[in-house]
């Protein structure tokens, strides 16, 4: 994981929308300054803006990737973004990771956002469950830092090994369980699902937040709803990446169904 601090006058108007907020990042194909269409005037123009982006010539259209904001410092016009740098062919060796690995002060990327990564807002609940792989750790860390002293949270995290475990700060009562996949490539392990299945739930009604590799997220959600009996409206989920598929590949039928389910009230 490499943390990169982004700064600039364009962050003066950055308005947080949720602990697990995301932004679109744009990376120039030639390593210079990315050319990004003017931002949409309002929410009604978002689809038009995206079509303008897609209409750019291939050699000029920057790569677009979605990342969580780890921390926002408005007084300094700064945001921190954590990049997973695995180059194991598991979906982490794309243009964003390559840029982050070589980033130096003065390098320029484009940023659009933020937006909420989850489409379910917590209702009444007694405790929160956070489950995810490395890609979910920035959002989980931001979530935990937003909680108050009366909150209780349980974190289940899958990482390659103990060297990738992180320390989280929170005013809440937090229990963290780390599961290591060892030599199994990212996206090929059942560690996250196994960890959630093995978890002894605290008493009371939970709100669950699940993110990471799309198929693993799907399995965890099915377990929580189908086997644990959690109300599907109390499970926020997001597939941050897909094994063997890039951000630029079209969504599968199963992924489209996931999107519809996530957006359902």
TrEMBL record:
GO terms for molecular function: oxidoreductase activity. PROSITE patterns: FAD_FR. It holds the Pfam family SIP. InterPro entries: FAD-bd_FR_type, FNR_nucleotide-bd, Riboflavin_synthase-like_b-brl, SIP_FAD-bd, SIP_fam, SIP_rossman_dom. Residues 1-121 form the FAD-binding FR-type domain. Transmembrane segments: none annotated. This is Siderophore-interacting protein.
């Amino acid at each position: 994981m490499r943390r990169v601090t982004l700064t600039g006058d364009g962050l003066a108007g950055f308005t947080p929308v949720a602990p697990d907020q995301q932004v679109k990042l744009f990376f120039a194909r030639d390593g210079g300054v990315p050319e990004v269409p003017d931002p949409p005037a309002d929410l009604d123009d978002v689809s038009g803006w995206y079509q303008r982006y897609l209409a750019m010539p291939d050699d000029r259209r920057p790569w677009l990737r979605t990342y969580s904001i780890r921390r926002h410092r408005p007084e300094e016009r700064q945001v921190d973004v954590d990049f997973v740098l695995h180059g194991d062919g598991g979906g982490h060796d794309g243009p964003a990771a390559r840029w982050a690995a070589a980033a130096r002060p003065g390098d320029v990327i484009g940023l659009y956002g933020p937006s909420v990564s989850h489409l379910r807002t917590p209702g009444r609940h007694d405790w929160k469950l956070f489950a995810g792989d490395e890609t979910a750790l920035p959002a989980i860390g931001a979530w935990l830092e937003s909680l108050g002293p009366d909150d209780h949270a349980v974190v289940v995290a899958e990482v390659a090994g103990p060297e990738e475990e992180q320390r989280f700060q929170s005013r809440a009562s937090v229990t963290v369980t780390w599961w290591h996949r060892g030599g199994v490539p990212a996206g090929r392990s059942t560690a996250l699902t196994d960890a959630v299945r093995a978890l002894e739930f605290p008493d009371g009604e939970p709100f669950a937040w699940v993110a990471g590799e799309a198929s693993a997220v799907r399995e965890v959600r099915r377990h929580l709803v189908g086997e644990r009996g959690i109300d599907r409206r109390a499970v926020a989920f997001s597939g941050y990446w897909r094994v063997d598929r890039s951000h630029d590949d079209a969504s599968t039928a199963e992924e489209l169904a996931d999107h519809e389910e996530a957006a359902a009230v």
